[in-house]
Amino acid sequence: MTQRTARPPTGADRLPLDLETMRGSARLLLAEDAELPTTGELETLTLTLRGHMMLLVPAVEDATRGLPDDDVPKACALACVGEARMRLGLEPGRTLPAAVAHAQRLARSVNALCDHVENLDGAHQ
């Protein structure tokens, strides 16, 4: 029996990203009037932000393809991807304030990745 390994979708295979929803998730933690989430809400939100990042990272990488190696927006976007990957590898702290700070860092990465998707999408048109 043969085994098939699913490949991640690329280019035309990929579903469109809902950047508005992704930014909305980030706002829940980053808005000036954001309320402190409960532990359960924070866990759900952290997982949601991680999921957004897992979709955004390859989208940003795809958007940089075809740009010259010395392109400044490409370099900035790929640096953001590197930071996002690093943050995805980190665990939240054990206390609520540490877990909130971790989730806020994820939220900032989501916002930055959304910015790069929007900016680089225009570069290919």
Keywords:
mainly alpha; 125 residues; 4 helices; single chain
Describe this structure in words.
Helices cover 66% and strands 0% of the residues. Mean pLDDT is 89; it is low at 4-9. With 125 residues, it is mainly α. Helix 2 (39-64) packs antiparallel against helix 3 and helix 2 runs parallel beside helix 4 (96-123). The protein is built from four helices and no strands. The protein has one domain.
Outline the secondary-structure elements.
Elements: H1 19-30, H2 39-64, H3 72-88, H4 96-123
Helix pairs in contact: 1-4, 2-3, 2-4, 3-4
By DSSP (H or I, 4+ residues per run), the number of helices equals 4
Rounded mean pLDDT score? 89
N- to C-terminal distance? 45 Å
- Percent helix range: 55-70%
Structural class: mainly alpha
The rough form would be described as elongated
The H/E string reads HHHH
Provide the number of structural domains.
1
Main sheet record: none
Strand content: under 5%
**Quaternary structure type:** single chain
Low-confidence stretches: 4-9
Work out the number of β strands: 0
From the alpha-carbon coordinates, what is the Rg to the nearest angstrom?
16 Å
